[in-house]
Amino acid sequence: MAKIKICGLSTVEAVETSVKRGADYLGFVFAESPRQVTPEQVRAITENVPDTVKKVGVFVSPTPQEVEVVIAAAGLDFVQVHGEPLKETVSVPIIRAVSIRKSTTLPESGVEEYLLLDAPPAKYMGGNGTVFDWKAVDPAKLPKEKLFIAGGLTPENVASAIRYFRPLAVDVSSGVETDGQKDLKKITAFCQAAKEETHVSATNN
């Protein structure tokens, strides 16, 4: 069953809607981005989030020390690292984000426990609303039980992504926004589409 990650959250309303609609992971951006938040903001807007829903901090080329400070201050359960990967473990599991281009060779695994495939960066790492070329990677060679798929996912195409990759989780940010703000109806539609496809896949297997 594909899990759901709603990323780039910055309001109580969007957090509560994501949890209510069945998101498994909530993503908070600590790198430069229109969606950037502070650890204090994250603490405030996740006060009522159940322990079963995991909080993911998104970073670009951080040091382990920077990450640990934010983990403690924001109460994170995972960290997602774009850019230069961490070379040593931290106190929570690491999701390593890799930008997929036409001739991408997946990197050797390091200290991370999970892999996230994303579109190449534009102005910012992630959250750019573009879909990478899915055929540039062979799903058979991917660690499905550790795999997150991001990059331009929407309520309309998330079912196709689940069918193609069979990932652990699908990850959306700009695909559930309207005019740069999280759209509660789109969050609901994305979660519903992902759950329906997961149910269909399970039934057909």
List the helices and strands and how they pair.
Elements (H helix, E strand, L loop, with lengths): L2 E4 L5 H9 L4 E5 L9 H7 L8 E7 L3 H11 L3 E5 L11 E6 L14 E5 L28 E3 L8 H8 L3 E4 L4 E2 L2 E2 L1 H21 L1
Parallel strand pairs: 1-2, 1-8, 2-3, 3-4, 4-5, 5-6, 6-7, 7-8
Antiparallel strand pairs: 9-10
Helix pairs in contact: 1-5, 2-3, 4-5
Features:
eight-stranded parallel beta barrel; 10 strands; 205 residues; alpha/beta; 27% helix; two-stranded antiparallel ribbon; globular
Quick structural summary:
The protein has 205 residues and is an alpha/beta fold.
Commentary on this structure:
The protein has 205 residues and is α/β, with parallel strands linked by helices. 27% of the residues lie in helices and 21% in strands. The protein is built from 5 helices and 10 strands, in the order βαβαβαββββαβββα. The chain has an 8-stranded parallel beta barrel with strand order 1-2-3-4-5-6-7-8, surrounded by 4 helices. A two-stranded antiparallel sheet has the order 9-10. Helix 3 links the parallel strand 3 (54-60) and strand 4 (78-82). The chain is globular, with a radius of gyration of 16 Å. The N and C termini lie close together (12 Å). The model has no long low-confidence stretch (mean pLDDT 92).
Shape verdict: globular
* Helical percentage: 25-40%
DSSP strand (E) fraction? 15-25%
The whole-number mean of residue pLDDT values reads: 92
Biggest sheet, strands in spatial order? 1-2-3-4-5-6-7-8
Number of helical runs?
Answer: 5
Please give the largest β-sheet. Answer: 8 strands, parallel, barrel
- The radius of gyration computed from the alpha-carbon positions, rounded to a whole number of angstroms, is 16 Å
End-to-end distance: 12 Å
Structural class, judged by helices and strands?
alpha/beta
Point out poorly predicted stretches.
none
Order of helices and strands: EHEHEHEEEEHEEEH
Q: What is the β-strand count?
A: 10
